[in-house]
Design goal:
single chain; about 190 residues; alpha+beta; HIT family, subunit A; 2 domains; about 40% helix; about 15% strand; globular
Length: about 190
């Protein structure tokens, strides 16, 4: 969305209007403002590499490396937790194929698959996007993750809080092999 200069009164009016919108109206408003929804709709030019009924893969116009692709959901979702499970599964099957096509088609030596999920994670656009970046030896890109020391008690505490939140949100879901998360937690010794 292009930068627009609006005064404080206009900003307050817009904020009030947004508060009054239903979830459906808010989602439609976001879609109209979203550059990636405009790309999906064909209103903004892009180099399409792959497309099906759920996703669109395009070349990034500011690539980290030549061949850097963005995989977009055709439906507007801001962050990954909003995607239905079957769509997430489809997205990552396509990511697998696109990554493999880079290894074969442009002689990439590897790929980075990146999802910036939320502003704190570096997400800049309010549309769920998967970056697939082809890599070669000594290509100048450094994705070194910092390694912070934590006490074992802190690790246990964080693990317990995540496991509790996970079991609360998907307690009865079954894995492909039929084991519930409770059964897996018992096997792994997580309570």
């Amino acid at each position: 969305m292009a930068e627009q200069n609006i005064d404080q009164e206009q900003l307050r009016a817009l904020q009030e209007k947004l508060k009054q919108m239903s979830p459906e109206e808010l989602k439609e408003f976001q879609k109209k403002q979203c550059i990636f929804c405009q790309i999906v709709a064909g209103k903004v030019q892009s180099r399409r590499v792959y497309e099906d009924d759920k996703v669109l893969a395009i070349l990034d116009i500011n690539p980290a490396n030549p061949g850097h692709m963005l995989l977009l959901t055709k439906e507007h979702y801001s962050i990954m937790p909003q995607l239905p499970d079957d769509d997430i599964a489809h997205v990552f099957r396509v990511v697998k194929s696109l990554s493999n096509s880079m290894l074969k088609g442009i002689d990439a030596h590897g790929t980075n698959v990146i999802v910036a999920n939320g502003i704190a994670a570096g997400q800049r656009a309010q549309h769920f996007v998967v970056h697939i970046i082809p890599r070669k030896e000594n290509d100048g890109i450094n994705f070194a993750l910092p390694q912070k020391a934590m006490e074992q008690k802190e690790i246990e505490d964080v693990g317990n809080r995540i496991a509790a939140a996970l079991s609360g949100s998907v307690k009865e879901e079954k894995t492909e092999k039929g084991a519930s998360l409770d059964e897996i937690s018992k096997i792994l010794g997580v309570k």
